[in-house]
Amino acid sequence: MSKVVELSRVVKVYGKGELAVKALKGVDLEVSEGEFLCIMGPSGSGKTTLLNIIAALDKPTSGEVKVCGLNLAKLSEEKLARFRLRNIGIVFQFHNLLPDLTALDNVALPAIIATGDIKESRKRALELLEWLGLSSGAQHKPFQLSGGERQRVAVARAIVNKPRLLLCDEPTGSLDYESKLRVLELLKRINVEKKTAVIVVTHDELVAKYSTRVLRLVDGRILESI
Amino acid sequence: MNWRFVWFLALRYLVSWKKHSAIIVVVIAGSVFLYALTYSMLCGLEYATLSRTLGLAVPHVKVEVSPRDYSKLAELLESDTRISAFSPRLLCDSLLVVGESSRGVRVIGIQYSLENRVSKISRYIVDGSWSVRDDECVIGVVLADKMNVSVGESIYLLLPTGSLWKLRIRGVFETSISEIDSYVVYVDLSELENRLGGDKTYCVALRLKNPSEASMVADWLKEKGYRASSWEKLAGNILRLLEVERFYSNALIGSVLVITSLGIVNIMLMLTESRKKSIGVLKAIGATSREIFSIYFVVSLIYGVLGYLVGLVGAVAVAEALKEVSVEFLSEKITVPFILDSELCFLSLVFSIVVSTISCAYSAYRASTIKPAEVMRFE
C-alpha cells in the first residue's frame, strides 16, 4: 500500500534561546492508505503540533514531511492551502464550523473553494448530510445544532472533497458518550467505505478500539506501538 | 483565485452581519449625503454668483476700442460664431444732483436695443421701462431711495466736462447687487457721447454662446490688436472667493471622510477580531490569504456601493424637495439652487468607495495574515 504520510526526524521548537520549547523531538512516522491511526498522549505531549505539521498548517523546525508523496517544505503558502483543500480533511476538537453559514453551506464550502460550482457543491454537501443522517438540520446555523450534530457536520465538511487523508484533533473531546460513539462510528465508516486514511490524535482510550494502529506520544517522542 | 467562492462568502457575511452591515451602510450613506449636498450647494453657489455677475456687473468679454474703430470691430465680431451678441458702452463718473443732495455715480451710455441682448438688466426692472432714449435714464432702486426720486421725476448729472444734464427717470431696476443698485445710471449712448465730446473709448461688452470660451475669445481679439479681457479676469475677486469657499468645503468633506473611515475601521476590526477563528478555519480547509483579503474587500465594496446609493437617493430627495436655499454671500442674499449633475454623482461614488475600501483594507489585511495554526492552538 502507498504511503500517505512520511515523517522523518521531525523536530518542532517554539520560541528561541532560553525560552525555546521543543514540542517534537525527532518524530518518524509512516501512515499507509486505508489505515486508521490513533495517536494517544497526555496534554502537552505534542499531539496537536504533530497534526498541524502533517496538515501543512505549521512547518517543522527540522526534518522532512511528505504527505501524499509530496515534500511540503517546497510549497508556497498558497500552494499548501490548495494542497490541503484537495488532499487533507481536518476535524477540530470544537467543530469550528463557521457561525455565519448554515450546516449545508459549511459542508459545501471546501467544494466551492475547489470547484467554484456553488450549485453542484451544495448538491454534493446535501448528499453527504443525508448519508450522515443530518439532512433535517441542513439549513440550521451551527448554534441550532447539538454538539454531536455539529461534530458530524464538521466531519462532513472534512470529507466533502474526498480527501486521501483525514486528520482529527480530539474529535470526541467535547462530546457526551452517545455522541462520541456516533462520531467514531462515522470515522470508521469513512475509513472503510471511502478508503480514506484517518489519523486521530486523542487521549480518549475509546478511540483505540476503532483504530488499526495506536501510537503513544510522550514529551514529543513516539514511544511505542500498541 | 476562486472569485465565486469570494463572492459567495462575502454575500453570506453581509446577510449574517445584518446589524453591523446596516450601521456601516448608514454611516457611508450619511457621509455621501453630506458630501453630495455640500458639493451641490457649492456648485449652486458658483452658478448663482457667476450667473448674477455675468451679464450684470461683468460681461463675458470686454473690448476697449475708439468709436472710429468700432465698426471694424463690429464686423469682426459679427463674423465669429462663438459670439452671440455685443453692445458698445461709454463709461464716465459723474455727480448725480437732486435738489440739494448729490451723489457720485457711474454713468453707462448704452444703445438699449443692443444692450438688451448682452445684459440681463432688463429682467430686473421693478418700475417703469428699460428703453432709455435721448434725455432719459434708468437708475438702481437703492440710488432712487437715497435720492428720494421715482419714475417720471427729474435728476441732474454733473458731467466731467462741467455741464449739467437734466434727465427724466424712465425706469428703476433692482439686481440685489448693491454696487449696481446704488451706483449705476444707464443713459442713451449717443446723447452721452455728444455731451462728453472728444474721442472717448468704448467698452464693448460681448456675450458668448459658451462663457467658458471667454479666455480664448479674449486672446483671439488681443491677437487682432484689441485690448480685451475675459470674465475670469474681470471677476477674479469673486472667483478667488469661490476658491476659498471650495477649499473650506473640501476641508469639511475631508474631516467627514476621516471620521467616517475611523468609525468603519473600528467596526470592521471588531468583526475581524471576532471572526479570527473562522478565518483560521477557512485557511485550514484550503482558502488562500488572497481569497480571505478579497472576501473582506468585496464586503467593503458592497458597503460602499450600497452606502452610495442610499446617500445619493437621500441627497437627490432633499435637493428636489428644497430646490434652492437662500444664503448670504458677499453681504448679499442670494438664492442658491442645488446642482446635482452626473459628474457629482460619479464623484460621490468614488468618495463612497474610497471611504469604504480605505476603512476596510486594514482589517482585510489583518484577516489575510492570520495563521490558522496559531488561532487553533488557543481553544
Features of the shown structure:
heterodimer; A: 226 residues; alpha/beta; Rossmann fold; 4-stranded antiparallel sheet; globular; B: 379 residues; alpha+beta; 2 domains; 6-stranded mixed beta barrel; two-stranded antiparallel sheet; 14 helices; 22% strand
Account of the protein in words:
The complex is a heterodimer of chains A (226) and B (379). Chain A is an alpha/beta fold and 226 residues long. Chain A has a six-stranded mixed beta sheet with strand order 6-7-8-3-9-10, sandwiched between helices. In chain A, helix 3 packs across helix 4, helix 3 runs parallel beside helix 5 and helix 5 packs parallel to helix 6. Chain B starts with a helix and ends with a helix. A six-stranded mixed barrel of chain B has the order 2-3-8-5-7-6, surrounded by four helices. A two-stranded antiparallel sheet of chain B has the order 11-12. By secondary structure, chain B is α+β, with helices and mostly antiparallel strands. Chain B folds into two domains: 191 residues, no CATH class; 174 residues, no CATH class. At the A-B interface, helix 2 and helix 3 of A face helix 1, helix 11, helix 12 and helix 14 of B.
Which structural class fits the helix and strand makeup of chain B?
alpha+beta
What is the count of structural domains of chain A? 1
**CATH homologous superfamily grouping of chain A:** P-loop containing nucleotide triphosphate hydrolases
- For the largest interface in this structure, which chains are involved and how many residues does each contribute? A-B, 34 and 30 residues
Quickly count the helices of chain A: 7
Termini separation of chain A comes to 21 Å
How many strands in all of chain B? Answer: 12
Q: Based on the structure given, which CATH architecture of chain A is correct?
A: 3-Layer(aba) Sandwich
Global Rg of chain A: 17 Å
Domain module count of chain B: 2
Number of strands of chain A: 10
Beta percentage of chain B is: 15-25%
Please name the CATH topology of chain A. Rossmann fold
Oligomer: heterodimer
- Low-pLDDT regions of chain B: none
